[in-house]
Every structure is written in C-alpha cells, then in structure tokens.
Amino acid sequence: MHAAKDNDPRLDRREAMRMLLDRRGDMLLVTGLGSTTWDAAAVGDDARNFYLWGAMGAAAMVGLGLAIVQPERRVLVVTGDGEMLMGLGALATIGVQCPPNLALAVFEMPATPRPACSRATQTMA
C-alpha cells in the first residue's frame, strides 16, 4: 500500500478500502458516517454494503447484529475514529459476544478535531 501523497506517512483510504474489499466473496460491509462510506462507494457500490448516513456511533453495533444473524457470512465494519468513539461501548458488547465472523477496521480521520493534549499522547505510542 502506498502513502497518500508525497512523503505523507498516512495510508490512502481509498486504496486501503479497495484492498479490504478485494476478493470479498459474500462478505457484508458496514461503513460509518462520512468518509468511509464515500470510500466504499468509490471502490464500488454494492448491495452488500450498509452505509450508515446519520447513524453516528452505530456502525459497530449494526455489524455485530449482522454477524449474529448471519453467522455463515463474514461482516466487516469500516469506520472512522470519531464515529468509533461515539459508539465506544459497543466494543465491550462485541468483546463479550466475540463473533468469529466480525472484523472492525478503524481509520484515523485527520479532519476529526483533537485537543492539543492528544498530540502528546500520540507521540508516546
């Protein structure tokens, strides 16, 4: 995978989405609010895609519901960091349920407002 542009170390979201959906078979895709939905649609709109416009914080729980009722199908949730933070409690429920057919990919979105102190914690990682 290549950097977004020039010397930028961030991944190109569209290329990342394309790779995640390559050879998807019958996998269901749930996207969060905004950019991940645009990226999935740009890669190729599909009846197996669940775009959650206006449902900020719900992508992980919708993915969990699909994984539980469709145990024979893989389910991928792709969302941004801000949307995931809105539904942070979903991770505890997913951890308890632990469906083997569910995967989550969380993209860092540079447009998400961050307090100044978060820069310090990011450099520690």
Q: Could you list some keywords that capture this structure?
A:
single chain; 125 residues; alpha/beta; 4-stranded parallel sheet; 6 helices
How would you describe this structure to a colleague?
The protein has six helices and four strands. It is an alpha/beta fold and 125 residues long.
Q: Characterize the largest beta sheet: strand count, sense, and whether it forms a barrel.
A: 4 strands, parallel
**Overall 3D form:** globular
List the total number of helices: 6
Low-confidence stretches: none
H/E order of the elements? Answer: HEHEHEHHEH
Average pLDDT for all residues: 86
Distance between the terminal alpha carbons, to the nearest Å? 22 Å
- Tell me the fraction of residues in β-strands, as a range: 15-25%
Q: Based on helices, strands and strand pairing, what is the structural class?
A: alpha/beta
Radius of gyration: 15 Å
Helix content: 40-55%
Q: Order of strands in the sheet with the most strands?
A: 2-1-3-4
Task: Let me know the number of strands.
Answer: 4
